[in-house]
Amino acid sequence: MKKLFVSFLVIASVAGFAQAGGDAAAGKNKVATCVACHGEGGNSLVPNFPKLAGQNERYLVKQLKDIQCGALSAAEQKAQKCNGRAIPTMTGLLDNFNDADLADIAAYYASQPSSGGQAKAANAAKGEEIYRAGIRSKGVAACTACHSPTGKGNAPAGYPALGGQHADYIAAQLKAFRAAADGLAGRSNDGETKIMRDVAYRMSDSEIDAVANYISGLY
Questions:
Q1: pLDDT of 22-31, one tens digit each?
Q2: Number of domains, the chain
Q3: What is the reported pLDDT for 20?
Q4: Model pTM score
Q5: What average pLDDT does the segment 173-180 reach?
Q6: pLDDT tens across 155-172, in order?
Q7: CATH number at residue 100
Q8: Are residues 132 and 73 in the same domain?
Q9: What residue numbers bound the domain in which 44 lies?
Q10: DSSP one-letter string for the chain
Q11: Both 163 and 124 in a single domain?
């Protein structure tokens, strides 16, 4: 467990996340097409679309660039040395945005207040235990190591804020990381350290659903 925690600290200091520093006012004028899925101000009302409001800029910029990369062929991704994140519902939506545009969009959403959420009572206690203490028997580290005890993430390191996010979306992402760790189609844009793939691979569906539920009410 100690080694896992130390690895989190090392990764936080060296991770190559994209730099941020956009213009929120300019970004507001560039998100018209985003509203349909992510809601006004980034507070999505649909469980399978993530809330973007209040998310840190550095993380948002990285995801936007990874999504752009995900539209490229495997050969193009290799040539550009990027690890794509393929999201079918976003196909083509970022094609005409340059790095400055993405930074502006990220700054806008980061400046918006999050609507928060509400956890269901059923498995919230189990989810809290996993979030705060991990799963020692499986070598799963506590989520607080990167995402903070309050779910606000670590903006300087580019680790995302999770508190108040839709439980369905969180669960889907953890299962996507787990699938990728198992060599299946999924999500693999967590860096060469494979930190999220390693964590998710060790978790069962019920454990993922429990921690996702708890996080949805944490803000």
A1: 999 999 999 9
A2: 2
A3: 58
A4: 0.89
A5: 98
A6: 999 999 999 999 999 999
A7: 1.10.760.10
A8: no
A9: 17-110
A10: -HHHHHHHHHHHHH--PPP----HHHHHTT-GGGHHHH-GGG---STTS---TT--HHHHHHHHHHHHHHTS-HHHHHHHT------GGGTTTTTT--HHHHHHHHHHHHTSPP------STTHHHHHHHHHH-BGGGTBPPTHHHH-TTS--BTTTTBPP-TT--HHHHHHHHHHHHHHHTTSSS---STTTTHHHHHHHT--HHHHHHHHHHHHT--
A11: yes
